[in-house]
Amino acid sequence: MLVTSAYAQTAPAAPETPAAPAGDSHAAPAGETHTETGAAHGAEHGGTFPPFDATYYPSMLLWLVITFGLFYILIKNVIVPRVGGIIENRQSRIAQDLDEAGRLKAEADAAVATYERELAAARAKSHTIAETAREAAKAKAVADRNAIEAELAAKLASAESRIGEIKAQAFAEVGQIAEETASSIVDLLIGGKATNDDIKAAVAAAKTGA
Amino acid sequence: MANDPIHQFQISKIVPIEIGGLDFSFTNASLFMVATVACAAGFLYFATSQRSLIPGRGQSVAEMSYEFIANMLREGAGSGGMKFFPLVFSLFMFVLTANLLGMFPYFYTITSQIIVTFALAVLVIGTVLVYGFYKHGLHFLQLFVPSGVPGALLPLVVTIEIISFLSRPVSLSVRLFANMLAGHITLKVFAGFVASLGALGALGIGGAVLPLLMTVALTGLEFLVAFLQAYVFAVLTCMYLNDAVHPGGH
């Protein structure tokens, strides 16, 4: 049965494992163990469990030294410098790009600062201009108002003096009219002539009384 | 013997070479060592040949594995350990590629050979010892004398430290070897069940569904194990190298 033969061979493989490290010195006993269990298929490969078959150890070691030695030399002299170079190159490139980005950022920051400063200056200037204009306008307005007020006051004064004049004239004329009216009234009422002096005196008395 | 789970670890000569009575034949295992190196090196070489500033897919993977190991080593052994980076990176890429290549049917898994993993572990521990003594001289032995231990306990602690140090190459190699070996055997056994049950007729085919599902699930698990073991191997290498760089400070 193939199944059972498979089992028979796996079984010895496990207990031998601890003995394995000893290498050459233990190869012989290990081989013996195997000759017993491997009897069923012994004819095919000499009855020794292949990993413990010391016959091929020199060959294994020689070819391992040759192949691994070449591999080590290739790795040490070609691959490691190359891959190390690639990685270093990339890192320096990244560092360089970061530096460049930092420099550009600083430049942009400086430009922003300049812009801000100029903006502030322009604002301050415009503020001053507006202030000056407002002051000037205010001063002009005050001056205009003062001038108009003065003119109005002058006109008012002349108007008042004219009114006074007219009033005085009117008052003066009132006496004459009253005299004429009084003489006419006297005429009509008493039919006699009143003397001008009497009437004048009477009007003057009424004026002062009023 | 199509269902023999051990058969996949069998070594066969391709070009027989014998020097001084020792067999140095170019075997199927040697072939897959060459294939592993060719795949790993070819991938890393061609993926990074553009040297793009913005990496493509291949270059991204190559860079990710590079940085993965670089970070691991920097965290594990500090910046002083970075001189071992080519070694750790080679080990990781070699083990990972070997494990992943082993997942192909009919491909040979070289990390399932104890001698291979043991040789790699000895390389790591050898590097630790050689560099440790070269750099720190006899101060390297402070590694076995943790600071702040009461005098009475010191012999015991030092013994334990030495045993733990000596067991490192063993645990490092056996962990990788046993995981790959056991995983591939288990896969093969369950796949064998599918074939043997399938041969039993209609009922057997119905029963073969379960081991088939198991095989599918195990294949997924084995891919995880393939990566995980390469990762563990690299992490432990970093930790051991840390002892060589800073013997006094754990």
Question: Could you explain the architecture of this structure?
Answer:
- Chain B: It is a multi-pass membrane protein.
- Chain B: Belongs to the ATPase A chain family.
- Chain B: The chain crosses the membrane at residues 29-47, 84-108, 114-134, 143-167, 187-214, 221-242.
- Chain A is mostly helical.
- Among the domains of chain A are: 1-52; 171-209, no CATH class.
- Chain A contains 5 helices and no strands.
- Chain A has helices at 2-16, 24-37, 42-45, 57-190, 196-209.
- Chain A is rod-shaped.
- The termini of chain A are far apart.
- Chain B is mainly alpha-helical.
- Chain B has helices spanning 28-47, 57-77, 85-101, 114-136, 154-198, 202-245, and strands spanning 13-15, 18-19, 22-23, 26-27.
- Chain B is globular.
- The interface between A and B is large, with 57 and 70 residues.
Key descriptive features of the protein:
heterodimer, A: 210 residues, mainly alpha, 5 helices, rod-shaped, B: 250 residues, two-stranded antiparallel ribbon, 4% strand, proton-transporting ATP synthase activity, rotational mechanism (chain B), ATP_synth_F0_asu (chain B), transmembrane helix (chain B), transport (chain B)
Task: Give the helix/strand layout.
The complex is a heterodimer of chains A (210) and B (250).
Chain A: H1 2-16, H2 24-37, H3 42-45, H4 57-190, H5 196-209
Helix pairs in contact in A: 1-2, 4-5
Chain B: E1 13-15, E2 18-19, E3 22-23, E4 26-27, H1 28-47, H2 57-77, H3 85-101, H4 114-136, H5 154-198, H6 202-245
Antiparallel strand pairs in B: 1-4, 2-3
Helix pairs in contact in B: 1-2, 1-3, 2-3, 2-6, 3-6, 4-5, 4-6, 5-6
